[in-house]
Write a structure and sequence with these properties.
With about 325 residues, this protein is an alpha/beta fold. It has helices at about 10-20, 25-30, 35-50, 65-90, 100-110, 115-120, 200-205, 225-230, 240-250, 280-300, and strands at about 55, 60, 95-100, 125-130, 145-150, 155-170, 190, 235-240, 260-270. Strands 4-3-5-9-6-8-7 form a seven-stranded mixed sheet, with helices on both faces. Strands 1-2 form a two-stranded antiparallel sheet. Helix 1 crosses helix 4.
Length: about 325
């Protein structure tokens, strides 16, 4: 079946100009001159036999016909773009591109990646970090690790873990002249903050502590930075249980109090539904889940400072054989 299609260059010029309502911005996007965009749009209008724009006050406004034409054209370009990216990912089986938050990447994922590379030298892992949610269908990313509760339509999601929030600090803070044996002692220490949903105000209220300004102290843009400030002895931070577990196990941080609050959000590994069974994605997802399972021991061992470590009870003596 033959198709009656206008020239592709003219369609691209119109779609870009219609999105920006500007020939100049469309030209910048497509790396051509403004005159070239104007010429392509004019040729499309002549091909169609109707006007797509009103040229008013040195600006642009879509005609009724232009508005009708723009939506299906944009959807078609989006579909072509997504199909192209999917094809390019299929053609690059060695590369695995993963999007996640910078705090999770620095505090949990990257320190463990060598294990995955050793197990799968045939897969080349690329990590990108961003606060914005990456569109896995229309970007060149294969998968993402997201912090939230979902669901994410069109994506296959597996929960990695949830977390708890509790105060952490350097051991040297409790060896000086300012003790930290009870929550009220925080009045003599610097509070460190980041952009977590759980705040010092919430933790102090849950601990029944009054008379401490929950807003005082320096702020950091993410959990990784505030954790490093705590390791450095700059004050007491609210730590994410998963992101501080290795620091506690290494003795660089301690957990001075028992009280912890649930974060109410979880980490999930997500990928487009249609691509969830691709070998490189399956391999990385299995490795992640194995790391999470291996991590449980660190989480369970994070006892408050001064609390005796959990001991494994000795088995009862064996009964003598008759």
């Amino acid at each position: 079946m033959s198709r009656r299609l206008p020239p592709l260059k003219a369609l691209r010029a119109f779609e870009a100009a219609a999105r920006h309502l500007s020939f100049t911005k469309a030209a910048g996007e497509l790396y051509v001159t403004q005159a070239a965009i104007s010429h392509q749009v004019k040729s499309l209008e002549e091909w169609l036999g109707l006007s797509l724009f009103h040229r008013v006050n040195r600006g642009l406004r879509l005609t009724a016909e232009g508005q009708v034409y723009l939506q299906p054209l944009r959807e078609s370009f989006d579909s072509i773009d997504a199909a192209t990216l999917r094809l390019m990912r299929v053609d690059a089986p060695r590369r695995l591109t993963i999007s996640t938050l910078d705090s999770f990447a620095a505090g949990w994922l990257v320190p463990r990646l060598r294990g995955f590379r050793d197990a799968h030298p045939e897969i080349e892992v690329h990590i990108t970090t961003a606060d914005e949610i990456v569109d896995l269908v229309r970007s060149d990313h294969d998968m993402a690790i997201r912090y939230g509760n979902g669901p994410w339509p069109g994506l296959y999601s597996v929960q990695l873990f949830d977390e708890e929030i509790y105060p952490v600090c350097s051991p040297k803070l409790i060896t000086g002249k300012r003790p930290l044996s009870k929550p009220g002692d925080l009045a003599r220490h610097t509070l460190l903050h980041d952009d977590m949903a759980v705040t010092w105000r919430m933790w102090l209220r849950a601990a029944g502590v009054e008379g401490i300004d929950p807003e005082r102290g320096p702020y950091y843009t993410n959990s990784f930075l505030v954790t490093h400030a705590a390791v450095n002895g700059d004050g007491v931070a609210l730590g994410r249980s998963r992101l501080v577990a290795s620091e506690i196990a290494a003795g660089r941080l301690i957990k001075p109090f028992e009280l912890s609050l649930p974060a109410n959000l979880s980490y999930h590994v997500v990928t487009p539904e249609a691509e969830k069974d691709r070998p490189k994605i399956v391999a990385f997802r299995k490795w992640l889940l194995a790391e999470v399972e291996r991590d449980k021991g660190l989480i369970e061992s994070a006892t408050p400072a001064g609390t005796p470590p959990r001991e494994t009870p000795e088995p009862p003596p064996a009964k003598p054989k008759p």
